[in-house]
Amino acid sequence: VSELRQNAATRDWVVIATERAERPDQFRNERRRRRLPPYDPNCPFCPGNEEKTPPETYASRLDGQWQVRVMPNKFAAFALRGSRERNTQGLLLSMDGVGAHEVIVESPQHDKTIGTLPFSQVRLVLEAYRSRFRALLEDHRIELVTIFRNHGEHAGTSLIHPHSQLIATPIVPPFVRERMDTARHYYDQWGECLYCDMLKQELATRERVILENEHFVCFAPHASRQPFEMWLLPRHHRSSFGDTSDEEIHGMADGLGEAMARLHIGLDDPDYNYMIHTAPYAELDVRHYHWHVQVLPRLTTPAGFELGSGIYITTAYPEQSAQYLRQVELPENLEALAERAS
Ligand SMILES: [Zn+2]
Ligand SMILES: [Zn+2]
Prior knowledge:
Layout: E1 3-6, E2 13-16, E3 58-62, E4 65-72, E5 87-89, E6 92-94, E7 100-105, H1 119-137, E8 144-151, E9 163-169, H2 174-190, H3 194-205, E10 209-212, E11 216-219, E12 230-234, H4 246-266, E13 272-277, E14 292-297, H5 304-309, E15 312-314, H6 318-327, H7 334-341
Parallel strand pairs: 2-15
Antiparallel strand pairs: 1-2, 3-4, 4-7, 5-6, 7-9, 8-9, 8-13, 10-11, 11-12, 12-14, 13-14
This protein binds zinc ion (ZN) (2 copies).
């Protein structure tokens, strides 16, 4: 028989279809990616084309050359104009799309991706995330800042040049509110943070732990929605990503950089999304919520059953996926890894 598992934090149910369970190496990306040049004169994110994008809101520079650059999305879904006033007509509710939609260009080099960047460069990317996250929450109209990365066509990428995005919204959607509520109920019941407890339990067995360092732990959730799903949690309890210290950003760069490198090598550059789940403005510093990164490889497509029931069918055991990723051999230094990928 198959096995049903529930994720304590999201309360999502997943079915592990044991009959159809596949070996971890069967998830390797079969499609050959196009070989990319390190520089593309027609790419709006490549150096020299800065005037093709809206003016930058942040940049990190070395010897006059930007290393990471942030600007509003040219086709922004949100902008810092308008108010939060609700318009109603009976049951029909609407409001201005006030907020921000920015692009974080992660490297001047066209052919890199987060899984092939040196960890020192990943750190610059995370510093950009944190800086923009803090700045946007200063605007009283903003309730939530969501940072995410789409990689590959199944993950919704439209531009190849390595980049992440950030969207600041004037509302907290039910999806986020429900996770906050689940965490708060757990805290009220047990007097502990659900995520701190999850971390403790994962570290007690280490069955699903993929890697850990002084500040972060990366594991495959017990009820993973997709094969090779990964969660990266800070060891230190914090509700908001924006409060991450410099030292933690360092540890996060090493942890996220390594996790993405293992995924990149182990599955041959699969499509994926990653998201930073963090508390909304009103709950930036609470004992019940713990910010974290979720990496969701797009190895299967949710279909009718998933959309109709919210139950996910997966054909991989998280324990086996974690073991497989732990065993991926990394090159001695990430510069070598970057060479290999280009
Ligand atoms: Zn480019
Ligand atoms: Zn916690």
